[in-house]
Amino acid sequence: MNLYCIPYAGCSARVYDSWQQHLPDHVTVVPLELPGRGSRCTEEPIDELAALLEDLYRQLDTGTPYALFGHSYGALIAFELARLLRSEGARRPSALLVSASRAPRLPAADADSHRLSDAELVERLAALGGTPKELLENEELMEIYLPVIRADYRILGAYGTGIPGTVDCPITAFYGDADDEADLPSVEAWADYTNGPFRVERIPGDHFFLHSAERELVAAVEAACTQEGAVVTPTAAPVTFGQLSVIRDLELSAPDEQSDGNLTAVYALPAGTTAAEAEAAWSALVERHEALRTVYDRSPAEPLQIVHPFRPVHLDRVELPDGTAEAAEVLAADMAEREIRVESEHSWRAVIATHAGEPRHLVCVLHHLAVDAAACALLEKEFRTLVAGGSLGPGPVPQPVQLALAQRAQERQRRRTVEYWLKAWEGFVEEDRQAGDTSLRVRAALYSEAAMAAAVRISERLGTSVQSVVLGASALALFRLKGRERATFALVAGNRTDSRWDTLVSSMNQLAPMTVAADRGTCPEAVLRAVYQSGLERLLHGSYSLDELREQLTAAGHPNPDPLLFGCYFNFLGEIAEPPEPWSPLLDGIEWAATAWQASPGFNLRAATGSGLHLSLTASRDYLPPDLVGLYLATVEAVLAGLADGAPNTLDEIDYAPLRRVDQYPETAE
């Protein structure tokens, strides 16, 4: 772990240079130098807290376990740095170690020292005893030093009192038994500033026991880190094939598109649920599922998942303007706009949404590296069980590390799967393998109970799945509107056919592309049967190492060897569709959503079954003109209805006329 150390006012971080020799190898001392001193003596000192915190924030590597230590003034800066890390959603420090410091709500002894004249300030420093006499007596050096100490004192002078907030990590406070500046009662008040454990440790000496009792202090720091579980060895393992696909997809995305991997979830809390109960339920899920306490090292050629030990979580409260689910969903969407930095913070953020002070919803943003649709459904089910007072099944649940190791142990299966895709690659339509389409996306959706009933009847008659029937109808509608006879769809494979992974929280989705072909004289039922058989075969081969496949495609000389570069997606979300509100345009028309800029795919169709069929399409202007997006969805519905009661002999005989109102694309959506 890294032990970041912040010096006291006016001091250089070199005061910590000797600490490393007293600590074990698994603790790395990282002195944080402030501008204007030490190795940064040529820089202007900073006299404003926010700017100083931003400077220190850039020096941190939160991708590995770490603790923060600060002495005197440095302790307040370390505390504020921990608060900044929390507000940024970064991984919290394993421990906050504050030394010779009064709690933030108590006025600092040096709060007005920046107002002193140079002579008075020198006299004050001499009285404190922390500044070498040789420095105080050297006028030339003091001309350099006084602006530095005065800048620190300005920050102290502007620092407010009261309780500005808390941190989630444990706090250990060290005090000198002869320290008149920060005595025991003023140090014990730090207990109000953490939601975790708090300890006080006595060190012999005055305010500058950092010097006089260095060995005792360093030993106490090491012990405090160990007691709080800060000195740990996280579990590092290869990523799963699903995680690898998400990581490579992130690498294709622009910096401002990294938040596209965020998924939202809003769980309504039963009446009477306290914030503590909701927090305890979510904390139990974080303990149960390692994916919720994992960070990812993407720098090696083979990325790693790094699982950290469980620590109870604290969730912020956010007051909503009203207690409706819509208000909570707006909050979730706002939270999802900010990137989750998976290299340094766990793959989720969550708050308890309140109205009039009463907890109403748990609002979550989860990164696709940690969850897929099936995992999201599992988390919701388990959370609702826990807040209702129930308990989860006994025994351990499967974890992503276990899946990753199992996937790599099956060498023969891995080789066969890659060989399968090498052969399949020859049949893909190049038009649907294009990437780089950044034209504006148009988004629309519909809900149809009639289409759901029709898809069920067709699947029962043909002995196929409802999912494949919807995919087949979607392909036929696309052929109709685009004047095509072949298209390659990148199916999103859930890869949960093995019951061992039923309760795994992770991302298992991967692309399983397939080509659908049919000319105008083809029998529609033949197309649907072929889609079912081909789709099933593709999905059974949906788990593979994307890097291995890319390597083999490159070696085979394929001109477009990236397994992610597909422009036409079909994603079956499962049986999660629920009836919309009676006034919703989803029922008898088209619901348009705000447009967005994004990378490929240029055609992304999502289907969910349940009480009805819910179809949502995001299509680029270059792939499908805006006015055709709503018409396309209505055409899928019409195809299903036309095939439900005995299929026509050819595609030309299908009645493609929409069964619902199809409004023109509203320019206001832009």
Automatic annotation (TrEMBL):
Pfam families: Condensation, Thioesterase. Residues 4-210 form the Thioesterase TesA-like domain. Gene3D superfamilies: alpha/beta hydrolase, Chloramphenicol acetyltransferase-like domain, Nonribosomal peptide synthetase, condensation domain. Keywords: Hydrolase. SUPFAM superfamilies: alpha/beta-Hydrolases, CoA-dependent acyltransferases. GO terms for molecular function: hydrolase activity. InterPro entries: AB_hydrolase_fold (IPR029058), CAT-like_dom_sf (IPR023213), Condensation_dom (IPR001242), TEII (IPR012223), TesA-like (IPR020802), Thioesterase (IPR001031). It comes from the Bacteria. PANTHER family: S-ACYL FATTY ACID SYNTHASE THIOESTERASE, MEDIUM CHAIN, THIOESTERASE. Belongs to the thioesterase family. This is Alpha/beta fold hydrolase. It comes from Streptomyces tamarix.
